[in-house]
Design goal:
Layout lengths: L5 H29 L3 H28 L9 H16 L6 H29 L3 H35 L2
Helix pairs in contact: 1-2, 1-3, 1-4, 2-5, 3-4, 4-5
Length: 165
């Protein structure tokens, strides 16, 4: 069995997040359609557009490595997306729906932040400076999206869910 290196681990992580981003691209339009608050809808639509850019950046990182862009099933993101689908079904037309959707979206963001932070660090350690910059750009956008979702949750979604109780 060949020795597994940091480069192999980095490549494996890239495949994982590439798969995750492509699954997120499919989930965000459903979340935007389900959302009741205009700010939630807009946030999900905006993040879908950003996610397309994230996929393109990942493809550039694969190119830097001289590897074909490919995904590897990410059970973590599948689980988070399944939870989101469950919330959409169980809280459909409920005042708590947007709060639930935002919580799911933030779980996705936190997963992505963890992945991109690790991959950026590994890219630097492997001397892949251009890849590190691309990954950092996405990492910063993921953090900004998380903060924007928190703002929507605190300013509207959570209060709507609480007041209705």
């Amino acid at each position: 069995m060949p020795v597994k290196t940091l480069e192999a681990l980095f490549y494996d992580g890239l495949k994982d997040i590439y798969y995750a981003e492509r699954q997120i691209l499919k989930a965000l339009p459903k979340m935007a359609r389900a959302a009741q608050l205009p700010d939630s809808k807009a946030a999900f639509q905006k993040h879908r557009d950003e996610t397309e850019e994230h996929v393109e950046r990942l493809q550039q990182v694969f190119e830097i490595m001289g590897k074909r862009a490919q995904g590897k099933t990410c059970e973590a993101i599948q689980g988070i997306i399944a939870e989101g689908e469950e919330i959409m079904e169980e809280f459909k037309a409920s005042p708590a729906l947007d709060a639930g959707l935002i919580s799911t979206a933030q779980a996705v963001e936190h997963y992505e932040i963890a992945r991109y932070g690790t991959l950026k660090t590994w890219a630097k350690q492997l001397g892949l400076e251009k890849a590190a910059l691309l990954l950092d750009q996405t990492l910063q956008e993921e953090g900004a999206t998380d903060k924007a979702l928190t703002k929507i949750a605190l300013s509207a979604a959570n209060n709507k869910a609480k007041v209705a109780a």
